[in-house]
Amino acid sequence: MNDAREMAAALAGGALALLPTDTVYGLVCVAASRDAALDLYRLKGRVEIQPTAVIAADTEVLLASIPGLEGIAAAGVRTLLPGPFTLVVPNRERRYSWLSAARPETIGVRVPHLVGPAAEIVASVGMIVATSANLPGGPDPCRIEDVPAKIRAGVAFAVDGGELPGTPSTVIDLSGSTPAVLRVGAGDPEQALARLAEAFTE
After folding, report:
1. 44 to each of 63, 130, 131, 189, how far by Cα in Å?
2. pLDDT, tens digit, for every residue of 135-187?
3. CATH code of the domain in which 64 resides
4. Cα distances (Å, whole numbers) of residue 202 to 46, 179, 180
5. Number of folded domains in the chain?
6. Which of 6, 89, 82, 10 shows the shortest CA–CA distance to 51?
7. What distance in Å separates the CA atoms of residue 159 and residue 23, rounded to the nearest whole number?
8. What is the SS3 assignment for 152?
9. CA Rg, the chain, in Å?
10. What is the extent of the structural domain holding 60?
């Protein structure tokens, strides 16, 4: 399967895939299918209670898919994305609630810098689910060859984007009144918080 349109159709139909992002290789599926998300969890060996982020091709698609974002959450999406950040934001309508079973009133969102076929596929499909294409506790894959054989065998297709930086996104929680850095990864969290504070007070 080499054509991006064919890949997008397979993904939209519930298939699992490997896509390069701006940080690490991701194991992905379409966000709108709970069954596909459960298949993704099983393949990765991830417990369903663990939250998993959604990815959009651009911020406008994201804001349309997670309606009602306002205040610091909306400022974060518009200021920090696209970029190497995962933002935990309020999810008042509980869209894709199966991706955040412990806190369905929130959801993790990303708009990475995508290029090539990966960008075309995500733009075509819309919202996708993405998690690092490793087994629990394993290293984050920066090359397609680093993805465990079990995962590579369980996907419908893989897009090879060459060697990636290999550091997962920084996670910032914007679901409360004060931003909180939950994981330090790619991107500068202090600079991100400073940009966010400046944008939110303008």
Report:
1. 28, 11, 9, 28
2. 999 999 999 999 999 999 999 999 999 999 999 999 999 998 899 999 999 99
3. 3.90.870.10
4. 41, 17, 20
5. 1
6. 89
7. 14
8. helix
9. 16
10. 4-201
